[in-house]
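Appendix C reproduces, verbatim, an entry submitted by the partner laboratory led by Prof. M.T., so that reviewers can inspect both the input and the predicted structure.
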Amino acid sequence: MKFLHCIAVLLLLSATAGAAELFVAPNGSDDAPGTAQQPFATLARARDAVRAKIAAGLDADLTVRMGGGTYRLDAPLVLGPEDSPGPHQVTYAAAPGEKVVISGGRVVAGWKRAENGCWTAEVPEVRQGKWWFRQLWADGRRLPRARWPQDEMLTIKTVGDGVKRIGLKQKLPGAALAGKDAELVVIQNWSIARGIVTDSGEDWVQTATPMGYVGHRWTTASPGKRAYLEHHPEFLDQPGEWYLDRKTGLLTYRAAEGEDPNDREFVAPVLGQLLVIRGTADRPVANVRFQGIEFAHAAWALPEIGYAGIQAAHYGDLEIKKPTYAVPLAVELEHCTGCGFTGCRMRHTGASGIGLGAGCRENEIAGCEIDDVGANGLMVGWRPIADKPPRQWFEADWDDARDVPAGNAIANCYVHRCGQQMFGAVGVYDAFARGTTIVHNLVTDLPYTGISIGFRWDPTPTSQRETLVAQNHIHDVMKVVADGGGIYTLGLQPGTVLRGNLIYDVHRSRYTHGGAPNNGIFFDEGSKGLLVEGNVIYGTSGSPVRFNRNAKEWHTWKDNSFGVKPGEPGFPAEAAEKAGLQPEWKERLKPL
């Protein structure tokens, strides 16, 4: 298959006698010539040097060798049609044996001891109104914002004032919550809502924005649903928690006994995006690749309209059927052809990871690890452009056929711990795309669905077709919200194949109020035209397979194993063993 061939090509790049190379290193200089002895210092300078070579007429492949270390960006690295090398290939590659990190974050240091086990650090840019962050990592671990209650949930009793006044069954802490950037988080059925607290009383809170997508009862706050409060200085009662005061710029961290925060590296994100590769329908970006690079520390800010989640990290404003948004991607591609990422890592994001959007054709994400992502891990297909207003309701197809993504591949990736902030996010998302290949991935440890394909709630024909979801290993999903599964489908999908997937440990969350059970494969509204062959499903909280507003006879079935566990008679051990990462990737992407 083409994507496996390209993987092999990329892995051999470092051993290939390339016609041209440029070098960049954190200790280099942008006034240097970009040689191995005198490397550039920044990726922007290296990109400009590549761009100049392309303009002069590139006659061979070109590799940008990146020395080990962290490259802290002042702005996203943006590539456009002028960075397209024509028939040749440009590869940004980590030097052999080196760890290379492209970071949108900044180190926070200078901790001073305070009271009650807390330490503080001054962040002048926050006090000056130049910076605000909702994510913080220490030594590569995401730290939780101060939360109440700590281990349990609040229960909603009443809802009023446009779904902004939320009455609770429990009494709240005595401190006033307004003016501290405290958030109320409501667990819906398959999504969540987040809103800033503007007022509070003994057993109620008022939020600035509606706590849910008004007009759909399953995505709107209602009596019986669970909630919690986040980010207030009075909630700092557990080691690892933190609070940031917008007015004073003081960051407060609750340390463990004997811990000195000055011995650790704390990183907060500045940039919402790290890499944007954007061509046009007439001038796509072609043949640009990234190899062996870690992308880390991308921010997500709570939108002015709040976050009223609908599904798969899409959110809306007040009423159903209005235009909708999708949370941004740390790495975003549009109108790209033959581009890709191999052996890379995407981690520590506020929102989503890597996305192949409008007009992306024959691109690959292969052998990558997606870890600790705030929303969706990997995305292929339609989504509102991050820096423009939403154009349409989120189930709408492309207006221009040239925008339909086609022939893209996600293979041998380890996708885990996504949805860290938006619990209704998915590991791998594919919608309004043709011929996407999603094969041999390990997808695990998720609050909602593993792999989601299709985004139309009826069998109306769309551009969604011919997706191959094959031999993926999916387990430990549906840990926080409900009404999803290992694989989730929507709409008419002619030529789509679900083959040889191993799915188990699909949980039933104790946090959701009502809602349907969770399944190995959930064929939701309008799902039609799929071939379901050789899949192995067991250990699900609901039935192995479920249908909602479609029927079994709408699909073709062959040689599946449903409900038979390992060790029981008839368990297809050989088929199960073939699912997941291929041998050459199993050791390299061994679960942490």
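The radius of gyration is 24 Å. Additional entries are available on request from the coordinating office.
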